[in-house]
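Support reply, case 0932

Customer input (verbatim):
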Amino acid sequence: MKCSLYRGGRTATSWTLLALSMASAPTFAQEGVKISGLLDLGLFRDTTGTTQLGTIRRSNVAFSGSEDLGGGNSVFFRLSTRMELDTGAIEKGNRPFWHDEATVGLKGDFGSVKLGRALDATYSNDWKFDPWYYFDRIASPAWDLWHYNYPSDPKANGGSAEYGRIDNGVYYTSPTVGGFTVSLSGSPEKRTGDKTRSTAGALVYSTNDISAMLSRGRNSAGNTDTFVGLKGKVMGVSLMGAWNESKAGPSVAKTITLGAQYTVDKFTYNLGWGKVKVDGAEAQRVAGAMAGYALSRRTTVYVDLARKSFPSESRTVYGVGLSHAF
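Our regenerated output:
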């Protein structure tokens, strides 16, 4: 029997079908879509000497989900936006609404493949080798120094450089075999003015006691980036180091960072140090520290302190923040 939804009357069958569809919609949303993110806000002093209220780490809200296709295969998606929590605005810069990630993909015994905008193969793995997880603008040496000459996509944000993500991307992550995982990323598109297509690859080894990473990338401007990371645990302390070389035309930047993280009860302590040389001359040096206290499984209050040195001056920066994951 044909339902008459637009002609003034509904049969009993049409009412039944409508009721069933309305009842099933919330169930699908709850089981198939997850809302998650991190909200971070703090009071801090930056390298200009300005004291301000703002995001120290990165605040974001993400929608993600998956559907079982059978046979060990599934389809998944992720939409994530980042914002400045002090004003509610999209993260500063000429960035799209779904700045953090906008992807859809397939997963199975072959690994996973996703399409869209996301972190490239290097940036999606290197965070493991920084005590702040490459996620803190005040105290993390990695934040200031890694990939110094290398935006993953020089034109990703309406023509502005993007350090980390590429637009129009294809991303592959292999299954883990013997502790080894391979990540590949690239774009099939070559835009007007591009010298080449963006490509990156990373080989990661990880066990309970040690992690290591080697990656190589080339962006659409022809700039290159090489990254090496190593991490291990000694007497409960996670020790890590990274070496990075980024080339933009004739300019070469070489970075080294060292870090340590120790967690006891509800307290976490971070220490980090790093420096970058550009064309043989030291351009910046950073020494940072953090103490954090977990108020709950999802909420942390923390204090950051760092000394940032440049060729002509040095600055002390600091902040206190509150982060809540959901």
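We compared this against your earlier run and they match. Two observations from our side: The first strand starts at residue 33 and ends at 45. The domain at 40-325 is CATH 2.40.160.10 (Porin). Please reopen the case if you see a mismatch on your end.
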